[in-house]
């Protein structure tokens, strides 16, 4: 890799893996050692998966390939990392939101919980490889959303049945 294409995606990958790990931690029942291992396995799987699909000069190129998705099917990268720590797909579906989309692109990592949720940015960096990267920890607008999204996968169904 010329100008370290691999190192360029390190921050984006670690941000995304840390986010999924935080969702698992918040759900409870998974030990810290397992979580650490899960995070490392997920990062490794993502690095491998994105190796030839990372284009800092055209950040949106390959975005669909790098999109991590849970939507009644477990994303294979998350599934692979979970297998390494002995978590079944069934258990993952209990622990993680039933609908999660995570976009891992050069200079930006964002996510959406639920099909109609708002898109929240986890990490953003100026494009030309500038050093002024800012980790967005003050994402209060979205913090509540991933908490509430976690516990209410059936909310939309309830509203439909109640309206009879």
UniProtKB/TrEMBL annotation:
<feature type="compositionally biased region" description="Polar residues">
    <location>
        <begin position="149"/>
        <end position="164"/>
    </location>
</feature>
<dbReference type="InterPro" id="IPR002087">
    <property type="entry name" value="Anti_prolifrtn"/>
</dbReference>
<comment type="similarity">
    <text>Belongs to the BTG family.</text>
</comment>
<feature type="region of interest" description="Disordered">
    <location>
        <begin position="127"/>
        <end position="164"/>
    </location>
</feature>
<protein>
    <submittedName>
        <fullName>BTG1 protein</fullName>
    </submittedName>
</protein>
<dbReference type="Pfam" id="PF07742">
    <property type="entry name" value="BTG"/>
</dbReference>
<dbReference type="GO" id="GO:0008285">
    <property type="term" value="P:negative regulation of cell population proliferation"/>
</dbReference>
<dbReference type="GO" id="GO:0005737">
    <property type="term" value="C:cytoplasm"/>
</dbReference>
<feature type="domain" description="Anti-proliferative protein">
    <location>
        <begin position="96"/>
        <end position="115"/>
    </location>
</feature>
<dbReference type="InterPro" id="IPR033332">
    <property type="entry name" value="BTG"/>
</dbReference>
<feature type="compositionally biased region" description="Basic and acidic residues">
    <location>
        <begin position="134"/>
        <end position="148"/>
    </location>
</feature>
<dbReference type="GO" id="GO:0005634">
    <property type="term" value="C:nucleus"/>
</dbReference>
<dbReference type="InterPro" id="IPR036054">
    <property type="entry name" value="BTG-like_sf"/>
</dbReference>
């Amino acid at each position: 890799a010329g100008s370290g294409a691999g190192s360029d995606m390190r921050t984006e990958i670690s941000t995304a893996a840390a986010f999924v790990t935080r969702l698992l931690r918040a759900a409870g029942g998974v030990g810290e050692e397992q979580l650490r291992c899960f995070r490392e396995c997920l990062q490794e799987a993502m690095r491998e998966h994105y190796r030839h699909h990372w284009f800092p000069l055209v950040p949106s190129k390959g975005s669909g390939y790098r999109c991590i998705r849970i939507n009644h099917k477990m994303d294979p990268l998350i599934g692979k990392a979970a297998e390494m720590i002995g978590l079944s797909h069934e258990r993952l579906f209990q622990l993680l939101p039933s609908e999660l989309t995570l976009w891992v692109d050069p200079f930006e990592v964002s996510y959406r919980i639920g099909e109609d949720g708002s898109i929240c940015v986890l990490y953003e960096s100026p494009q030309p490889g500038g050093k002024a990267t800012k980790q967005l920890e003050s994402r209060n607008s979205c913090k509540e959303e991933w908490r509430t999204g976690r516990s209410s996968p059936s909310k939309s169904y309830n509203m439909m049945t109640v309206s009879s």
